[in-house]
Amino acid sequence: MPTVSIEAEPYPFELIPSRCALLIIDMQRDFLEPGGFGEMLGNDVSQLRRTIEPNKVLLETFRAKGLAVMHTREGHRPDLSDLPPAKKVRGKGKTTIGDPGPMGRILIRGEAGHDIIPELYPLPNEPVIDKPGKGAFFATDLHAILQNLGITQLIVTGVTTEVCVNTTVREANDRGYECLVPADCVGSYFPEFQDFGLRMIKAQSGIFGWVCDSPSIIAALA
Ligand code: C5J
């Protein structure tokens, strides 16, 4: 497929399909599902759930076109050996990472709540990057996988906009990737952080990347 131009801010994104991957960040049951850990902490999961349908359509488009897709999950080893003590105690909550939660031990690999929601479940050929931090590049093999595939551009979607999406976009930018973030495919529990999280990416002529809407990507790839 030839390069396609996508309507975006601060200016059009020139997408090279063979060099572009869809990277879906942390669409995990504990963050998104009613009754999960996110809701247990008092968050409004509908703010994240509105991203499911646009992500599904974008994912189906990438799959149909045979383009690269990868997923991430935030979580830790069952013995907590990769969980920094500072992360374990952060927030001083009664229930923290590794404790029993509504869908198994919180943010522990292998537990139901840690897994990706069924609507966006990875296919066997789609790499799933298990990350212990907020950024998808920290302590993972994501960069090696992308380099081996010749990927230089990322469409970054998922949750949450100001935390794991923003951290990943910043890490990717420093490693030389061009990042495009479709606003309807990323979500925050906090509407003001959604707004500022996106504005920080595209500010100063695209200091970290570009922002668009997913229909613009889908239309350009049609
Ligand atoms: C993500 C978080 N995925 N908010 N995690 O953003 O702790």
From TrEMBL:
Domain Isochorismatase-like: 20-213
Record's keyword terms, sorted: Hydrolase
The keyword Signal appears for this protein: no
One of the Pfam families matching this protein, by short name: Isochorismatase
Molecular-function annotations in GO: hydrolase activity
Record PANTHER family: FAMILY HYDROLASE, PUTATIVE (AFU_ORTHOLOGUE AFUA_2G08700)-RELATED, PEROXYUREIDOACRYLATE/UREIDOACRYLATE AMIDOHYDROLASE-RELATED
Protein name stated in the entry: Cysteine hydrolase
Naturally occurring in which organism (per UniProt): Phragmitibacter flavus
